[in-house]
Amino acid sequence: MAEFTGFRRADGSVGVRNHVAVIPTSVSASALSRRIGADAGERVRATPHQMGADQPTPAREQTERVLAGIGRNPNVGAALLVELGTESIDVEALADRIAESGTPVETLSIREVGGTAAAIEAGRERARSLVAEVADARRETADASELVFGVECGGSDATSGIAANPAVGNACDRLVEAGGTACFSETPEFIGAEHILAERCADRATREWLLERVEMRENMAQLMGVDLRGAQPTPGNQEGGLTTIEEKSLGAISKGGTTPVRGMVEYAERLPTGGGLVLMDTPGYDVESVVGKVAGGAQVIAFTTGRGSTTGNPIAPVIKVTGNPKTWERLSNNMDFDASTVISGESLSDVGERLFDLLLEVASGRLTEAEYRRLEEFAINEIQPEELVGLRGEAR
Amino acid sequence: MKGRVLDGCALLMTDRDTVVTALEDLEADREIALGEGESVALREPVPFGHKVAVTAIDTDDHVVKYGEVIGEATERIEPGAWVHTHNCESTRGRGDIPKPNGSGVVAEGERR
Fold it and tell me: Of the four, A9, A107, A296, B90, which is 20 to 30 A from B44 by CA?
């Protein structure tokens, strides 16, 4: 039976890390949160971001959903929410949403405590007391079925679709077989492959929702009167041999494996535990997409890259997988797993098994290269004006 | 790996495909044996990961990889030619081309 060791939380979920998260409610509290995070010790992770103090309602709700989800992620043992004090996000309401899961939460208002200098002092102190609160947690054995595994690709090239994505897909199949959840996202990168995903949907509602969202993303390009080709595939993807979005998508979807698509969730919406393969509707920007899945509860991310992305995440370990032998060599201090052996003849099943073992090791505490180097990119998707128009039903 | 490696240097993902993927940097004039006595000679150098046509593809015809359509030929592509953005383009997400049913198209003169 596949097992790992993790931190059992009050709501029954299992964290693979035991972080204290310092979460700003807006850009105005982000620099300070980063400072507190840097000062308060090894366990503390800040999630600075660029979202505004006064976003339009749907965008604000999405930001709140992300922040609440980050605070509730099982890898977070305790959370400190930081606001300037002028934000339309209600920090106490957000704290309540996080505390529902049993996670200890503190709040800090920069205006209330008397400005930046006082807030740094108070923030450090509160972060340290939260660290003391989580320090006693110990790892215990947990079943692989309690893992929510987010998979992502970025800086793709032709090897992504041939080696790295199918290898990660094989690991997803193994996790789903073991009763866990695997999730992949990036709806623009379903374009051209959506008919294959649609056929794999377990029910009609999921199929219709999936096709609707793909059409919406494609129409966004139409609405803006632009040609997707300018951005997809990216110039780097093209240099790596990918010619069209269809080709990129057909390679991208293989990272989800071959099991039925059990459902689909909104950006940063809670992912089910024991849910099989589930899609999330996210933009194609990899950092925002990873954050969406971590906010949805993913404890571990696998990130495939042919060209050589170095991105990590403050809350979830990111396992870097490349199918490009040159990238494995050149970026050895950023890569965790070499899937290029698929091209030189190792069977997909063997590579997938090795990757699944690494997933369990990382879940049990083995640090990834991105963690060693404290690469902790964090960004929240902002709903664009064109999308807001669409949400209000005034699209045409 | 899914697909078949041809002549140790090119990957054919499915038998329906009209292109193969170079598994190493390939020089011009290199012959790739396709099996059953057939072969194709490269008309130009093709870098690792890039595609080579294994059959002739007419203008506007589908380019097929993974057994699926990945785009259309913008000019006639001869066997052995490098297939990339210069001769193959996407048919999806094309805001620059009005859809036949007119849906989603911004009115003339606006936001061009």
Answer: B90
Q: What 3-state class would DSSP assign to A94?
A: helix
Please give the distance of CA A82 from its chain centroid, rounded to a whole number: 22
Q: Residues A28, A86: contact at Cβ < 8 Å? A: yes
H/E run at residue A390: helix A385-391
**Of residues A38, A3, A246, the one with CA closest to residue A123:** A38
Is residue A53 within 8 A of residue A88, CB to CB? The reply is yes
- Please report, for chain A, the start and end positions of each structural domain, with discontinuous segments joined by +: 19-136, 143-372
**Is B36 within the bounds of a domain?**
yes
Contact B104, A390 (CB under 8 A): no
Rounded distance between C-alpha atoms, residue A65 and residue A331, angstroms: 35
Q: Give me the mean pLDDT over the A159-175 stretch.
A: 97
Q: Residue range B8-21: average pLDDT?
A: 96
How far from the centroid of its chain's Cα atoms is residue B84's Cα?
6
**Min Cα separation A351/chain B (Å):** 10
- Partners of residue A227 on adjacent β-strands: B94
**C-alpha distances in angstroms, A175 versus A2, A6, A357, A362, A364?**
9, 16, 10, 14, 15
B92: chain A residues, CB-CB within 8 Å? 191-192, 218, 228, 244-246
Is B105 part of a structural domain of the chain? Answer: no
Q: Can you tell me the distance from the alpha carbon of A80 to that of A94, in angstroms, rounded to the nearest whole number?
A: 11
Check CB contact of A216 with chain B, cutoff 8 Å: no
DSSP 8-state class, residue A203: S
CATH code of B67's domain: 2.30.130.110
Determine the residue type at A156: S
Rounded to an integer, the average pLDDT of B45-61 is 97
**Quick one: closest CA in B to A241, which residue?**
B50
A238 and B95 in contact by Cβ < 8 A? Answer: no
Domain assignment of residue B109, yes or no: no
pLDDT band at B112 (very low <50, low <70, confident <90, very high): very low
**Which residue reads 């679709």 in tokens?**
A161
Residue whose structure tokens are 């899914």: B2
A196 touches chain B (CB under 8 A): yes
Q: Which domain holds residue B49?
A: 4-89
| Whole-number Å distance between alpha carbons of B88 and B75 | 8
Which A residues in the span 296-335 are in contact with B, Cβ-Cβ below 8 Å?
Answer: 306, 324, 326
The structural domain count of chain B equals 1
Task: Give CA–CA dist A219/A45, Å, rounded.
Answer: 38
Question: Does B102 fall in a domain?
Answer: no
pTM confidence score: 0.94
Looking at CATH, the fold of the domain delimited by A19-136 is given as Rossmann fold (3.40.50)
pLDDT at residue A219, rounded to an integer: 84
H-state helical runs in A224-335: 235-239, 245-252, 286-295, 325-330
